[in-house]
Amino acid sequence: MSIIELNHINVNFKNSQKESIPAIKDVSLKIPTGQIFGIIGYSGAGKSTLVRTINLLQRPTSGSVLFNQTELTNLKPAALRQARQKIGMIFQHFNLMDSMTVRENILLPLQETTLTPPQKAAKVDVLLNQVNLTDLADQYPRQLSGGQKQRVAIARALVNDPDILISDEATSALDPKTTYQILQLLKELNAKYHLTIVLITHELEVVTALAQNVAIMAAGEIIETGPTQQIFNNPQTSFTQELIQYSKINPAWEVTDV
Ligand SMILES: Nc1ncnc2c1ncn2[C@@H]1O[C@H](COP(=O)(O)OP(=O)(O)OP(=O)(O)O)[C@@H](O)[C@H]1O
Question: Where does the ABC transporter domain start and stop, copy by copy (predicted)?
C-alpha cells in the first residue's frame, strides 16, 4: 500500500522575464506505507519543490497528489488543513520559534485542536521523553545545540500523530556524530510508530544508512528508483555512478595533489 502517490507532477516557476521555468517534470512516485524512502540529488535538482507538493505547500502546476487515497488538490481549505496535520515536516534550519521555550514550540501545532490543556501537556511530556529533552523543556532554542534543536523540531512535527514525516535535509547542518544520533532517532520512530519517513538529502550515506527504497533526482526528474542496495550496487545511469563516485563513503574519494 502506498501512503503517498504522486502522478505526473509538474511544477513551473516564472522567472523575472515572466517565462515559465520547469522545476519538476512529469514526476510519478509511490511511497510505501511504513517505509523510510530516500530522495537524493544535488542542490537544485528539485527535491524540496517535489516534497513540498506532498502537503501542497507547493501546489503543482499539473498532476495529482494522493495521500491515503485522498486527492489533496481537490480539498477545500479546512479539509486540507486537517490532512496536513497528518504530514509532519522537519528542515535543515529547524524553523523553531526563538521566543518560545522547547515545551511551547512543541505545543504550538496543538493550538488548533480540541484537546484540553492537561491533555496537551501530557502529549508534550511523552514526546519530550521520546526525543530525550525532558530536562531542557524550559530552555529557549538559543540555549540548545543543533542536534537538540532538531530533536525539538522532530517532537513538534510528531505532536499531531502524523502518518508521515518529511525530513528535508534535516541533518545537513549537523556534524557526523549528531547526524548519526538524529538518523538513529528517525529509525526508532519509524519502527515504534510505523511512521513513514521521506528523507530528502544530497548525502548518499544518509540514504544508505536508513532508506529501504530510494529515488534519484536530477534536473526536476526522477532518473532511477528502486531498493537502495540494488540501486547503489548496480547503478543504471551515469548520474548515479557519479553520485557514488563523489560520495564520502567511496574510499577512493580524495582530493588530488596540485
Ligand atoms: N519559489 C521559486 N521560484 C522560482 N524558482 C524556484 C522556486 N523554488 C525553487 N525554484 C527553482 O527550482 C529548482 C529546484 O529547486 P529546489 O529547492 O526544489 O531544489 P533542491 O534539490 O531541493 O535543492 P536545494 O537542496 O539546494 O534546495 C531550482 O532551480 C530553484 O532555483
Answer: 6-244
Q: Whose Cα sits closest to atom 6 in ligand 1?
A: 13
Answer whether 40 contacts ligand 1 (Cβ < 6 A): no
47 within domain boundaries:
yes
- Quick one: pLDDT at residue 177? 92
Q: Tell me which residue has its CA closest to atom 3 in ligand 1.
A: 13
Instruction: Point out which residues pair with 213 in neighbouring strands.
Output: 37, 227
Per-residue pLDDT tens digits for 226-247: 999 999 999 999 999 998 888 8
* Minimal-distance CA residue to ligand 1 atom 14: 46
Residue 184 has pLDDT above 80, yes or no: yes
Q: Is 11 part of a structural domain of the chain? A: no
β 36-40/221-227 pair status: unpaired
Residues 6+ away with beta carbon under 8 Å from 142:
98
Compute and round to an integer the Cα radius of gyration of the chain. 19
pLDDT at 255: 61
Ligand 1: atom nearest CA of 13 is 4
Could you tell me the residue range of the domain that residue 224 belongs to?
A: 33-56+84-245
d(Cα 187, Cα 181) in Å, to the nearest integer? Answer: 10
Q: Is residue 46 part of a domain?
A: yes
Task: Assess whether the C-beta atom of 58 lies below 6 angstroms from ligand 1.
Answer: no
Q: What is the largest CA-CA distance in the chain?
A: 65
Residue 26 has pLDDT above 90, yes or no: yes
Is this prediction's ipTM beyond 0.90? yes
Task: Give the residue carrying C-alpha cell 557526523.
Answer: 176
